[in-house]
Specification:
Length: 286
């Protein structure tokens, strides 16, 4: 089985776990294919490949580095039908399911095909300026329109199915997938949504209004956000990583993407178990 390995070499623990993982793969006579863009220092430990080569040849990807590395990898491999699995390396994370001490369990279950593949919806957006489409973006977590650090309050008009809903004055709007409901949207006061729910969450960021509330809409809805009033620094960001500057009267059209992200899941791990562990929920069981 061709297993690709993506390691964030900037994280010390990711490097340490990566070295241990490679040794365990060799013990099982598994070939090691390493993303040379992400971990050039690992080149002598396996077969270095470009991400494009991995996209064409890998059957499964293991990711070491955290949610940021996971999101970056998910976008690049979107639509490739390659399932991916991330390891939690000590920080709060909902995308990285397995712990570093689970290396043997993971490899044995993969070899014995004791895992399932979970399909996660992705989100895409188009930026239209003066009637022309100038950019397309793709994300797993969210698309965010927000003001810059020193900008004034911005105003964003929200339309659903071509119907004007409201104008949101404040710091911006987040449109997230259910997967992204536990990311920026959660910190802005949005609801936690099970990742298999088919919909989007629209969450205002620091709204300058008593009536602004998060919305949960169907994934088939046509979402449009128009920059009604803006200072010089209004940004569209995808998964908190890619950015594009917006200007007044720009329109951002958002919809469910055709591309999907495929996640490796083990039957003993459930979303609610991960939720309880990550958020440290404690209740009265008596």
């Amino acid at each position: 089985m061709k297993i690709g390995l993506v390691v964030n070499e900037e994280k010390k623990k990711a490097v340490q776990v990566g070295e241990a993982l490679i040794e365990k793969m060799k013990e099982r006579d598994l070939p090691v294919f390493i993303s040379q863009e992400d971990a050039p220092g690992f080149g002598d430990r396996g077969t270095p490949m470009s991400r494009r080569q991995l996209r064409n040849e890998a059957e499964l990807l293991l990711i070491l580095g955290g949610d940021g590395t996971f999101l970056h990898t998910a976008r690049f491999f979107a639509g490739s039908n390659i399932p991916i699995l991330g390891f939690n390396l000590g920080r709060l994370g909902f995308l990285t399911e397995m712990e570093a001490e689970d290396l043997d369990l993971v490899l044995d279950n993969i070899l014995e095909k004791k895992y399932r593949v979970e399909e996660r919806a992705m989100i895409e957006g188009w930026v239209c300026r003066r009637g022309l489409e100038i950019a397309r973006v793709l994300g797993l977590n969210d698309i965010v329109i927000s003001k810059g650090a020193f900008a004034r309050i911005i105003e964003l008009d929200l339309y659903l199915q071509n119907i004007y809903i409201s104008t949101f004055p404040g710091d911006g709007l987040i449109v997230s997938t259910p997967t992204g409901s536990t990311a920026y949207s959660l910190s802005a006061g949005g609801p936690i949504v099970h990742p298999m729910v088919e919909g989007f969450i629209i969450t205002p960021i620091c709204p300058h209004s008593l009536h602004a509330r998060p919305l949960v809409v169907r994934k088939i809805e046509k979402i449009e956000i128009k920059v009604r009033r803006a200072d010089r620094r209004v940004m569209l960001t995808v998964d908190g990583q890619e950015g594009l500057r917006l200007v007044r009267d720009d329109v951002v059209k958002i919809a469910a993407a055709e591309e999907k992200t495929l996640l490796v899941r083990f039957s003993e791990k459930d979303f609610y178990q991960i939720l309880q562990k990550r958020l440290n929920y404690k209740g009265d069981r008596g």
